[in-house]
Amino acid sequence: MYDIIEKKRDGGELTREEIEFFIRGYVSGDIPDYQASALLMAIYFKGMTEEETATLTMCMANSGDTVDLSSIPGIKVDKHSTGGVGDKTTLVISPIVASLGVPVAKMSGRGLGHTGGTVDKMESIPGMQTFLDRERFFDIVRRVGVSVIGQSGNLVPADKKLYALRDVTATVDSIPLIASSIMSKKIAAGSDCILLDVKEGSGAFMKTVEDSIRLAEAMVSIGEHVGRRTVALITDMSRPLGNAIGNSLEICEVCDTLKGRGPADLTEICIELAANMLFLAGKGSIEQCKRMAEGQLRNGEAYARLKEMVAAQGGDIAVLDDNSKFRQAKVHHEVYARQDGWFYAMDTEKCGIASVELGAGREKKDDPIDYSAGIILKKKVGDRVQAGEPLAVFYTSDSSRCAQAERLFESAVTIRGEAPEQIPLIYARVTRDGVERY
Ligand code: URA
């Protein structure tokens, strides 16, 4: 291990054997944290070649259980988002693509900090089971075409250990380490193709378009290196996606969007993401796939597919058809604009933290969640506002949480006398052929 650290410290390229030695030894406990930390820091400063990054990813992907989806017919396409506020795209696009014959066997995560998680949103539906054994998961994908569950089993233990170490050694922020961490989990989850939604902006991990593109390029390169077709879209997270933030509130917005009456920004991103998944599955050009995806919203087939998936996973579909059947938050609290002007900018991360404060998310891994809590935005960046108009409605079961959430929300909003520049929703598409800017 000493020689491996020294080689990377001096800018050398690690061999497959050296990377395998490190991952195997670190997962088994033979290599101590202090040596692993030193190597991570050397990687942070010296970087890794595409070859090294792909090898690291595969060693991590193979460090625990892997999912073999080959018994499910068809080209399976997975999707990963780097996380954001109000990002409910998985629950919109998975039924769209499944209703067009592309199977989706997806493992999602829980929310942490300012970002939400698909599993929490699904669990706001009464009865919904998100932890299924492998056979039942596969059976639902075969019968319904789509199942979304939480990650179970011993998937990528190398990432769990390394991520915890990176978190306390200031080495999270390294493109080869982030790319290998994300891609190892996607590769272990077994799909043939991977669509990445790399978020950019105040609510995202990557704060600039150029950094997001560099991360996307690294992940696309890994996927293509190891035989998984991979495409990435760079999408905006300088404002929350849609109007709803919070678990059952977001499920209501998912239903609206699948019925063709969702917010314009969410609908546009979902159509683009779904079209790219369909494209990866060989269903046609991006333009053809977009039209197909739009058609599934109009004809109700995508919404019907969501209901089938929810029913198959034990969820109560009555709340989808009639959203008033969701358990309602006791407190509804309006937040008003203090001045006239334009909604100029939003600190999306702070807005996400305000929703956590209301009970919609968790600060620590095991904190409980209030599924009915959250925020409905009444105004968004680019809108004109008048003093006294509602900017948002807060939902919570605990009125004592409103004051702090309101302080945070107000500090997240900038209102000015001038209109902001129009920000695109999608900045770029990264494929093995290069970067296409929108
Ligand atoms: N998300 C991950 O899964 N891994 C990282 O390293 C960063 C974000």
From TrEMBL:
SUPFAM superfamilies: Nucleoside phosphorylase/phosphoribosyltransferase catalytic domain, Nucleoside phosphorylase/phosphoribosyltransferase N-terminal domain, Pyrimidine nucleoside phosphorylase C-terminal domain. It is an enzyme of class 2 (transferase). Keywords: Glycosyltransferase, Metal-binding, Transferase. GO terms for cellular component: cytosol. Its cofactor is K(+). Residues 342-416 form the Pyrimidine nucleoside phosphorylase C-terminal domain. InterPro entries: Glycosyl_Trfase_fam3, Glycosyl_Trfase_fam3_N_dom, Glycosyl_Trfase_fam3_N_dom_sf, Nuc_phospho_transferase, PYNP-like_C_sf, PYNP_C, Pyrmidine_PPas_bac/euk, Pyrmidine_PPase_CS. It catalyses: uridine + phosphate = alpha-D-ribose 1-phosphate + uracil; 2'-deoxyuridine + phosphate = 2-deoxy-alpha-D-ribose 1-phosphate + uracil; thymidine + phosphate = 2-deoxy-alpha-D-ribose 1-phosphate + thymine. One of its GO terms (biological process) is pyrimidine nucleoside metabolic process. The keyword Transferase applies. GO terms for molecular function: 1,4-alpha-oligoglucan phosphorylase activity; metal ion binding; thymidine phosphorylase activity. Its EC number is 2.4.2.2. Homodimer. Belongs to the thymidine/pyrimidine-nucleoside phosphorylase family. Catalyzes phosphorolysis of the pyrimidine nucleosides uridine, thymidine and 2'-deoxyuridine with the formation of the corresponding pyrimidine base and ribose-1-phosphate. This is Pyrimidine-nucleoside phosphorylase. It comes from Faecalispora sporosphaeroides.
